[in-house]
């Protein structure tokens, strides 16, 4: 009985020590970083795109949001999708912005009500027999560039700022895309 009481007290003291240590570490980090640096924590996501096969999508996150990193194949044909005709914040299609690139990232959040679309490399009967994203919540469909094919999404998927450096795609840093579009 006495031994288990001693054990309990030792565990309690050890836990308090660990919590105190974490608190001290947090305080130290706050002192070492400027407020702008703290705000920027997690603002960049780096993905080794050499590990993504053609026509595959890597799902990761950027600033707490789902992120799709896509590698199109060299022979991928962007034509043939029946588009809904909605535009991004630049007043263009995403394709017009991304057409020179076969590796890029999109924010993986449906622009209708925020579900996460699914990647369907074989396409979907009655929509397009070509690779596309399907948001099953209310039947939204997007091309691999994030342009809306059909369904309720009011605009294309967002394109985050991004830069390609060798095999590294850095999302959250100005490069071939400078700002969130
Ligand atoms: S949330 Fe995607 S279609 Fe409604």
What is the CATH level 1 assignment of the largest domain? Mainly Beta
Element order, helices and strands?
A: HHEEEHEEEEEEE
CATH superfamily label of the largest domain: Rieske [2Fe-2S] iron-sulphur domain
Total domains = 2
Mean pLDDT: 85
Assembly type of the shown chains?
single chain
Could you say which overall geometry the principal axes of the C-alpha atoms support?
globular
Which spans have pLDDT < 50 for at least 5 consecutive residues?
11-31, 33-39
Q: Tell me the strand percentage band.
A: 15-25%
Strand neighbour order, sheet with most strands: 5-6-7-8
The name of the CATH architecture of the largest domain is: 3-layer Sandwich
Number of helices in the DSSP assignment: 3
Q: Characterize the largest beta sheet: strand count, sense, and whether it forms a barrel.
A: 4 strands, antiparallel
Q: What does the model show?
A:
The protein is built from three helices and ten strands. With 181 residues, the chain is of the alpha+beta class. Residues 11-31 and 33-39 have low confidence and may be disordered. The protein folds into two domains: 2-40; 45-171, 3-layer Sandwich (Rieske Iron-sulfur Protein), CATH 2.102.10. It is globular, with a radius of gyration of 22 Å. The protein binds FE2/S2 (inorganic) cluster (FES). The site of FE2/S2 (inorganic) cluster has 12 residues, from loops.
């Amino acid at each position: 009985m006495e031994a288990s009481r001693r054990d309990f007290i030792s565990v309690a003291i050890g836990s308090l020590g660990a919590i105190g240590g974490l608190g001290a570490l947090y305080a130290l980090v706050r002192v070492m970083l400027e407020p702008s640096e703290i705000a920027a924590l997690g603002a960049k996501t780096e993905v080794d795109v050499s590990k993504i096969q053609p026509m595959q999508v890597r799902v990761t996150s950027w600033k707490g949001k789902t992120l799709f990193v896509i590698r199109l194949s060299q022979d991928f044909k962007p034509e043939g999708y029946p588009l809904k005709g909605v535009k991004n914040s630049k007043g263009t299609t995403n394709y017009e912005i991304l057409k020179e690139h076969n590796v890029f990232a999109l924010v993986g959040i449906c622009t209708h009500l925020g579900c996460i679309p699914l990647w369907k490399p074989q396409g979907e009967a009655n929509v397009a027999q070509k690779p596309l994203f399907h948001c099953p919540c209310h039947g939204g469909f997007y091309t691999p560039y994030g342009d809306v094919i059909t369904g309720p999404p009011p605009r294309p998927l967002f394109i985050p700022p991004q830069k390609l450096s060798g095999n590294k795609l850095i999302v959250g840093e100005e490069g071939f895309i400078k700002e969130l579009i």
